Structure formats: structure tokens, C-alpha cells
Amino acid sequence: MYGVCGCCGALRPRYKRLVDNIFPEDPEDGLVKANMEKLTFYALSAPEKLDRIGAYLSERLSRDVARHRYGYVCIAMEALDQLLMACHCQTINLFVESFLTMVRKLLEADKPNLQILGTNSFVKFANIEEDTPSYHRSYDFFVSRFSEMCHSSYEDPDIRTKSPSPETEKERESPVELTERCFRELLGRAAYGNIKNAVKPVLMHLDNHSLWESKTFAVRCFKIVMYSIQSQHSHLVIQQLLGHLDANSKNSARVRAGIVEVISEAAVIEASGSIGPTVLEVFNTLLKQLRLSVDYELTGSYDSFANMGSKVIKVHEERQLQEAVIKTVGSFAYTLPPYQRSEVMLFIIGKIPVPGMYPALGSANTGVEGSRMIQVMLLKSLLQVTAGFQSTNILTALPTSFLDPLLSFTLMEDAEIRLLVLDILIGIIDRHDNRHKFSPVRIISDISVLKLKVDKCSRQDNLFMKKHSQRLYRHIYLACKEESSVQRHFESLYTLLALICVELANEEVVVDLIRLALALQDLALTEEALPVYTRCAIHALSAVYLNLICQLTTVPTFCQHVHEVIESRKKLVPFLLPEDVLVESSKIPEKLEKVEGEVLFVQTKIAEILGGSGYNTERLATAYIPQITDEDRLSKRKSIGDTVSLQLEMESRNSPEKEQRSTAEQITFETLKQAVVDSVNVEELERERRRQVVERFQTAPFEEIAAHCGARASLLQSKLNQIFEITIRPPPSPSGSVGNGHGPSRSIPVYEMKFPDLCVY
């Protein structure tokens, strides 16, 4: 019997005998190194046998696993690892299949030590660089199994947290560090087409485990993502996050705020200008979320068609979300070059409901308050975009299409909106970071201590002021008359005026600014109906501004006059200076007595002084009077309904019927007396008529309003038809004939007329 066995053993293939010889009788002795060297040499000499060697080792390993002979299992895996590292021939792919089969067998075992053994072997295999990729292999099982092992719930914590065996103690990593390193390596190898596949599981994980609300973990994950992927692919991650934000539009405010926070952090990491070709889509998505948040806050529901209270909406959480969106808008804008930031500014201003120019942006359920909140939120977003914005060309930074709607907000009754607009203008005009040098507002005897950065005005600056200066002055003048203005408003008005003087002033502009400052003084003197604080603040604004201008013009006699008036005010009426008015606890009288004499700036004297220095005396001596336009009256309205009523009022005043009824009346003493007596009644009737118009547009059915507008459209069309009929009627014929006598001649368009040859050039 024994002889037969020995004879059969000698007849076994050589590769099997070499494989058997590497296993010792006692597995604790470990791999027989001498025999392993023989096996390796044989595999290198006969690479065609490598696949058979692998298959046989796999067979032995499976048998040992089934018999719980784990010592031999370890020896088999060690042999496989050495063969894998030594052999790089063309037939290695066949051997790899056997190797992966054995690794899979170990990973499927219920013993954690075998799973760790298989994992270590797979790590060694993954670090081998192959000459050509092998597309026929499938690693789906390994990805799934390794992911499952990451969430192991094994009782022993040491085994549960064990990593692949490090070669040295310094290379030992915690599971968190190892996971982060693997995650970074995976993202670093992701190509353009694989970015979405890499980011989508991260989004799903954060959704499934409610990790958006805490923000910290989500922000850390996407910081890893943004720093690991190739920079040219970063905009793809941003787009996925924005799409995910849209998909969660009806989720809780805390979840949406978490996503927005992640977007904000990712935008900071993103390289400048690499948001991609869809810049406006990014801002459109963020502004859409801002609008939805306002609707949710005011309606109390995520669905306007659902029952109120279907989900509890917390106002403070929606406010936090709105602030997060505004911050994110600023983060994105910071990464953009100036020309793209200008486009974003135009885009946002086009989204804001402007009285008399654009309809309300709020939904039907939110009404006027919704429009007002949208105005505030979008202006805050615009303020974030303009922060740090420095354009060399003020004409491109403040084009007419942007400046017109923006200035219309300076005359609204909402104090917060007016303040936001002033800050936006300050941010755009301040190109040398001078704005902070004018705060706090105070009289400075020597402005050189401010260290202002003043450059000569460029041609573009002069063109801008020539085109828009009068509108700027008018809006500043009218903004000073607002009764709801407080300290912060007058401080911003002074900063804006100072920046215009420093950044954009030539000789002509300086003259107009002096006239404006003197006009503000006259305003405070004549408008006795204004609150005492407002009148004192206007006086202080005029004084501190003339103090700045006189030192910038460097005309000694002008400076002397201004300083004399200021000194007189310090002694007699200190409440007309900024140190007593534009402070937190102002020191103003209960009633403002008549201001006159040496505490006032004299326009004729200033004109005479500056005329001797070459300034335009005639213009200086002319008082500045702002021209009130229809736009200003439109902007003064509180709501969209008021704006519509005013537009209808203007139309009714300009209608043809109104013109036909106008007749010449003989004016007598009795007529004037009756006009004076009835003036109060007429004003009351006018106010009542306007109230009825507003009420009709706020409460009347849509069909009634549509019919009214349709009638006006029909009237306009009929007038246009009459005009067209006149323009296409032919002139008298050159021959003098007026027709063929059979009826009226047909109207022939000019381009169809037949002219004699002598009349054609």
C-alpha cells in the first residue's frame, strides 16, 4: 500500500509537488522559504504554468478553510502574495483570477481574522501597477464587501477597528485617517465622467443619516471632495450640490441650510472663475431658494395648496436659511472676475420688484409683505456681490440698466431698503478702500490724517458724472428729506457724498457738490414740518461735507469761511454739528428755533471766494433745485397697488377726453376766493378717489381688472390705426389727378407708389 502511494506521488506534476513542498508538517513553523524560492523560480521559468499553480493553491486553500486549518490558509496566502509580487508576465491575468477567487473565499468566511487576511492580500494586489488595464475583471463584490466591513458591529473593539497591517509603527493609522486617505485617493483618480458617480453616494449617505442638520460632518466631507478632485472638475460638484438643494426644496429649513452651508464652503475652495459656463444658473438657483423661503415663512406651509400647518415651519430657522443663502451668494461672487460680477449684479437687480418698473416677485399668498421681504433679501444679496468689487471703469460698473432701478429704491419709505441701497452704491464707487476713513462722522481740521487715496479722474469717470451726476444729486437730496432716516442713514449719505468727491470729482462736479451742500442747508431751514432730529442731522451733514470739500479744493479763504461757521456753531448751536447729532445718544433740542446769522454758510460769499480761484461763479451763485420726476413719485409709494393707482391717475390726466374738456376760464377775485375755501375739500376728495382706486385694484376680481386694461388696449390700438392710416395715404399725384371718378382712391403704401423717372434719384 505504501509503495503504491509513493509511486503515485512521484508521478504528480512538478508544479503540484513544488506547491506541496512549501507547506511544513507543522503550520506554526510557517512557510518553507527554500522551497518557496524553488516554486518562484519555476513560475518565472515556466510562466505558462502560473495559472495552474494558482488554481492548485486556491484548491488547497478552500480545503483548508473548510477543515478549519487556518495555519495552512495563512501559508497559502503568503505564497500567493509572493508569487503575485514576483511574476509580471503576460499570463499573470489567469493567475490573478485564482488569486481573487481565494481572496473572495476569505472575505466570505465568518472569521474576522480570515477577513483581515484577505483584506491585506487585496491591498498588496491593488498596489501593483499593471502594464495594461484588464477590463474583464469585476470588483463589484469587493466594493460591496469592504463597504459592509466598514460598518462592522463585531463585539471585540480591537478586531472591529483593525486596519491592514502596517509595515512600521509610524504607518499605523486609525480607521478615520485610513478612510479619509482612501477617500482622497479615490476622488483624486476620478475623471470628468465619474465625478457624479463619486459624489452621489456621499449625498445619499448624508440624506439617509440626517447629517445635513449638524453641518460639521457634511462640510468636512465636501472639503475633502473639493481638495481631492482635479480643479477643472470642481464646478461639477457645485452643480450637483445645487441640484440636490432643488430636490430638497420642501425639506426642513435646517436641512436646506446645511446644504447651503456646504455650497458656501465649497465655493470658497473653488478656484477663481471655475464655476463653469452656467454662472447665472448658480445664482438663479440660490435666489429661487431665497424666494421659496420667504413664501414658506409668510404662508406657514411648504405647499401653497396644502392645508396650513401640514408641517410646522419655524420662522427663526427660515431666517437662518435666508442668511445662509445670502452669505453663499457672496461666496460665489467673490470667486468671479469683475466682468462676470457685473453680469451677476444686473441679473439680481432684474429679479427685484421695483415700484413702477417691475411687478411684485412674491407669490399671490404673500402679497405686499412678500414683495417687501424679497426686496430686502435680494438687496442684501446684491450687497454681498458688490463687497470688495473694484472696477477700473465706473461706466461698466454702474450702467444705466443697473443704476436706474437701484436709485428708485432710495426714495422708498422703507428705511432698511434705503440703507441697503446706499451701502451698495458706496461699495461700487469706493475703488480705493476709502469708505472706512469717513467713519465716524466728525469735523476734522486737517484731513491729511485720513490718508485718503485720491487719483486723477479718468475720462470714463468724467463721462459717468456728466451722464448721471444730476440724478445722483437729486436722489441724495430727496433721501435726506425722509422722516424715517436715523443716524446710520446720514452716516451713509455722508460717506457716499465724500466718495463722490474723492473718486469722481472734477472742477464742475465740485461746484455742483458745493451747491448741493448749500441746498441741504436751505432744506433744513425751510422744511419746518420735518422732525427736529432730521433737520439737525441735515445741518450737520452739510457742515461736515463742506469742511471736507474746502480742504480738498485747497482754497484758503474758502476754508477760512467754513471754519468760521463751524466755530460759531460750536459756541452757539453745537446740535447742528455731527459730534452732537450723528451719535448714539444725540443732544438735540425739543424744538429747533430759527437758525440765522453767523452759524450759516453763505452761498454768495462762497461763490465770490471760489470765483477768484477760477471756478464758475455764475453756477456757484445759482441755488440747486432738484427736479422731481414721475419716477420719484412712483418710488415714493408703499406698495405695488399704490404704484398702479398712480399710473392710472397719470393716464387719466393725460387722456384725450381730459384735454377736450379743458376750456379757458375767466379768473376773478371770487374765483380765487372760492379756490382757497375749497382747497381742503378738493384735497380730501382727491385722497378719497385715490383710496378707491387702490381698493379696487386690491379687491376687485381679476376679470374686472382685465376688462379695464383690455378697454385701454383697444383705445390705444384704434389710435395707432388712425396714425397708420395717415402715414400710408398717398400724396397728390404728380399729374394732378385724384382718381378715376368711380369712387374714392385706395390707400397705397409709399413703397408701392409709382414715381416719374425725373423724380427718382
TrEMBL record:
Family matches, as InterPro entries? ARM-type_fold, EFR3-like_ARM, EFR3_Homologs
- Which Gene Ontology biological process is one annotated for this entry? protein localization to plasma membrane
**According to the UniProt record, where is the region Disordered?**
154-175
A Pfam family: EFR3_ARM
Q: Which SUPFAM superfamilies match?
A: ARM repeat
How is this protein annotated for GO cellular component? plasma membrane
Family assignment? Belongs to the EFR3 family.
Name assigned to this protein: EFR3 homolog Ba (S. cerevisiae)
Task: Write down the species.
Answer: Cyprinus carpio carpio
